[in-house]
Amino acid sequence: MTEQRVILEARGINKSFPGVKALDNVDLFIKAGEVHCLAGENGAGKSTLIEILGGTYQMDSGELLLNNQIINLQNPKHAQELGIAVLHQELPILRDLTVAENLFLGRQPRSRFGLVDYRKMYKDAKKWLDIISADINPRTILGRLSVSKQQLVSIAKSISLEAQIIILDEPSAVLTDVELKRLFAIIASLKAEGKGIIYISHRLEEIFEIGDQVTVLRNGKLVGSEPIQNLNRADLVKMLVGHEVLESYIANQSIDKNRTPVFEVNGLNHGHLVRNINLKVSSGEIFGIYGLVGSGRTELARAIIGADRINSGQIILDKKKVCIKSPADAIGYGICLVPEDRKGQGLLLEKSISENISLPSLKSLKGKLLLNYGKISKYSDEYMKKLRIIASDSGQTVKYLSGGNQQKVVLAKWIGMNLRVFIFDEPTRGIDVGAKEEIRNLIRDLARDKKSIIFISSEIPEILSIADRIGIMHEGRMIAILDRSDATKEKLVAYSMGGIAV
Amino acid sequence: MNRLAKYISHDSDLSIILRYVVLLILIVVASIMAPGFISMQNMLNLLRSFSFLGFISIGMTFVILSGGIDLSVAAILAFSGVLLGLFQHWGIYLGHVDTLSLLAPTPILFLIILSIGSIFGLINGLLITKLRIADFAATLGSMIFIRGFAFAISGGRSIFNLDGMALFLGRGMVGPVPFVAILFFISVIICSIILRYTIFGKRLYATGENPIVARLSGINPQKYKIIAYTISGFFASLAGICMAGRLNVGEPRVAEGWELDAIAAVVIGGTSFAGGKGGVINTVLGVIIIGLIRNILSLLGILPDPQEMIMGIVLLFAIVIGSLGTRKGSLARV
User: Fold this and answer.
1) What DSSP state is assigned to residue A248?
2) Which of A170, B55, B171, B180 is spaced 20 to 30 A from A73 at the CA atom?
3) Between the ranges A386-395, B197-206, B284-293, B319-328, where is the mean pLDDT highest?
4) CA-nearest residue of chain B to A354?
5) Looking at residues A33-40, what average pLDDT do you find?
6) Which of B59, B61, B65, B70 is nearest to B277 (CA)?
7) Quick check: B209 contacting A, CB < 8 Å?
8) Does residue B15 fall inside a structural domain?
9) Which pLDDT belongs to residue A238?
10) What span, in angstroms and rounded, lies between the C-alpha atoms of B93 and B71?
């Protein structure tokens, strides 16, 4: 193989966010005519790195060289002008404009009088779409196209910008197999033209199929960069996972010895992210669900409690089929969800701690006719104390609380209600380490009280430290359920990326 | 500026105190300009004149708390008045226009009309929640429809002369106090209790602040929104009956533009446009502030139409004070 020219060099990139070192001295070299895969778990720093390359974030220190010239990216537009195009998973598009208008947004061809020259615009759009052999009419309203076709439009846009570096952020997440094949063909032709392509993927097989080089990040640090041909699957998984000290699993004594399932899900389907899910949880058991972002974990949780209408499937409680059409029904049966988005879905931010805690249990806090504020404040004080929520008093507005205390308020809403099944979606996300352990201990206490728990997390050490069994989701399917004793970090990573266990 | 914004919007007590200060200033100004202003008699008269707007503003408070807006209230008000006129002149279809001919005993007529008003509100709620039409659009449509309906059933005529009981509702006095003002304050007290001390009230606030959180907490936000609109329809209709009694006429042209005054009263009172924050007592404050400003402007000899200019500025001012720093109210983060 001949030595290829390096187009983009990133050297010693550092980037910190409050409380986190997102990138720690990371290097990246992209050559002309190369498909460079970027891999790593959730939170490894991939997104931060591409946001820096795309000009969205400013790095704290480090250098970027484009064609051996030092560049200093100011903003996304600047990056675009220099020839670095980023195709995000969530495409920044204007759904009500036509394909051509989106392609030439902000740089429409002008006629002599300074007006938009539509004829030229549609003709040029057609030209770029033809180059990637996308069968799309440039006059179509973009919002009417499927997501995958919108993705193709974005690719056409980046080619039309004559970008030298094209960054594809998990395109396979939204494409069907046939479209993916087409995308690979387009990538191959871009490669032949000598463009540098950065391809981010969570699927191992894709990396092996189209990658030339793979760079692996873990916890913001560079693990290594190797030509794909020097690696096999096991090597790559090892690079992704590393060998970290795992948090110790505290054996769960409370789990029902016979493992009689209290709560069962049979053949649940909802859209394309919840496909034929089966699971059983017994009393006192913590059932972990691991999966990458977009694997359908949250959608599963929402489908179970009736927040989204399911296409088919059954929920069984104590061997009886129950009909859940709304979260209110679920709560009636003793099933609750602590949602991932604490601020947007868990709390009334403008209201007091007391109002939040009492919201689901108002019925039991009523006098004969009216609400009994004495009861309400006693109730909320009790749970504030029990969960050690730190605030001046229960009248404090929750938006001023720390993340950990906010999460405890969400937990307090449900713990006082004598429910049976608790679903936690990323309960420790975005809170500090001490509070994380406190939340986990509260969940262990619930299990000790014979509650059935579903614990969704994308942090492997965490899920290994708390779950009795772990189900792994990939593209809407539960592809494996492992006992705690069988579960290893390697297995979780391999399954969650759709590969077989190593 | 930032610190001020934080202080005012986050400390709701201060923002309410500010409104009381405004009220106080208005009273002082008015009493200087018109020496008779502070007399008991004038106060009671003012109370009566505020009550009609007051009723629809109470209903509007429920709707705005639920995160919505109701443009159809003034139309429902007019429709209800016309309906009362028609029901009391049922002979109109036989050609006897001026003589009273009741369709049913007056209390039953009231019940029928209040039910019809509530049903209009219910329909608004259903349009918004079931057909997922934007609150503004749905109630704009029903506003135009209901006003047209009022013209249609009355043939565009004013229907003069109502019976004694209807007149008492609008004009009657209990000792020195106008009956309609008593009715208004009873409504305010009942609604305050409903909002503060019932599960319904708490859930309505939750629905207005964040329907997603409400839903995951086991509340059906659609239900609460529908009820809020129904309550709004009920109060609009009550206002219509009282207004007809006050004017002694069922008139399809009455109260044009009042939906905007009601919205202004609610917002000036300090109930947040974003939903979930505020209450009926605040609205009373808003109604009184609006009424007093109009009263003072009239005392100054400013005609009603140019008055709108000043009302507009007051409204904008109130909205700015109320929404500084809030999530939905400010464009700062867009």
Assistant:
1) P
2) A170
3) B197-206
4) B202
5) 91
6) B65
7) yes
8) no
9) 82
10) 31
User: Which alpha helices (DSSP H) does chain B contain, by range?
Assistant: 2-10, 12-33, 40-65, 73-88, 106-130, 135-154, 164-171, 179-197, 199-209, 211-216, 221-247, 258-268, 280-299, 304-323
Query: Within a domain: residue B231?
Result: yes
B215 vs A327: CB contact, 8 Å cut-off?
yes
Find where tokens 């030092």 sit: A70
B244 CB-contact burial (10 Å; exposed 0-12 / middle 13-18 / buried 19+): buried
Say yes or no for a CB contact (<8 Å) between A413 and B199.
Answer: no
Average pLDDT over residues A183-187: 87
Distance, in Å, from the CA atom of A281 to the CA atom of A304, rounded to the nearest integer, reads: 13
Answer yes or no: is pLDDT of B16 > 80: no
Fold of A256-334+419-496: Rossmann fold (3.40.50)
Q: What is the ipTM of this complex?
A: 0.85
What is the fold of A6-241? Rossmann fold (3.40.50)
Tell me: pLDDT of A472 over 90. Answer: yes
Closest by alpha carbon to A331, among A370, A304, A368? A304
A contacts of B214 (beta carbons < 8 Å): 359
Q: What's the pLDDT score for residue B280?
A: 94
B218, A332: Cβ pair inside 8 Å? yes
Residue B1 has pLDDT above 60, yes or no: no
Beta-bridge partners for A37:
A199, A214
CB contact under 8 A, B210 and A348: yes
Number of Cβ pairs < 8 A linking chain A and chain B: 69
Q: Compute the distance between CA of residue B331 and CA of residue A426 in angstroms, rounded to an integer.
A: 31
Tokens of A322: 């129950």
**Given this model, what pLDDT does residue B308 score?**
83
How many domains does chain B divide into? 1
Q: Can you read off the two tokens belonging to residue A274?
A: 């919840």
Interchain pair A326, B219: CB under 8 A: no
Average pLDDT over residues B191-196: 95
Give me the DSSP letters along A352-382.
Answer: BHHHHHHGGGGGGGB-SSSB-HHHHHHHHHH
Chain A residues in contact with B205 by the CB 8 A cut-off are 348, 351
Q: Quick one: pLDDT at residue B106?
A: 92
* CATH 3.40.50.300 residue window(s) in chain A: 6-241, 256-334+419-496
B217 close to A (CB below 8 A) = yes
In a domain, B4, yes or no: no
Long-range interactions of A384-388: CB distance < 8 A, separation 24+: A384/A353, A384/A357, A384/A412, A386/A412, A386/A415, A387/A411, A387/A412, A387/A415, A387/A442, A388/A438
Q: What is the mean pLDDT of residues A489-497?
A: 86
Tokens of B3: 């610190």
For chain A, say whether B195 makes contact (Cβ under 8 Å). Answer: no
The letter for the amino acid at A208 is F
If pLDDT is split at 50, 70 and 90, which confidence band does B324 have? low
Q: Any CB–CB contact under 8 A between B218 and chain A?
A: yes
Looking at the domain assignment, is residue B226 inside a domain? yes
Question: What pTM was computed for the model?
Answer: 0.79
Q: How far apart are CA A299 and CA A271, in angstroms?
A: 9
Residue of chain A minimizing CA distance to B199 = A362
Instruction: Write the pLDDT tens digit of every residue in A260-310.
Output: 889 999 999 998 889 999 999 999 999 999 988 778 899 999 999 999 988
Question: What is the band of B11 on the pLDDT scale with cuts at 50, 70, 90?
Answer: very low
Euclidean distance between CA atoms A325 and A305, whole angstroms: 8
Q: Which domain, by its residues, includes B246?
A: 50-323
Chain A residues in contact with B202 (beta carbon < 8 A): 355, 358-359, 362, 371
Which amino acid would we find at residue A300? Answer: L
CB-based burial label for B2 (10 Å; 0-12, 13-18, 19+): exposed
- pLDDT tens-digit profile of B60-119? 999 999 999 999 999 999 999 999 999 998 876 656 566 777 888 999 999 999 999 999
Q: If you measure CA to CA, which chain B residue comes closest to A334?
A: B218
Averaged confidence pLDDT in chain A: 87
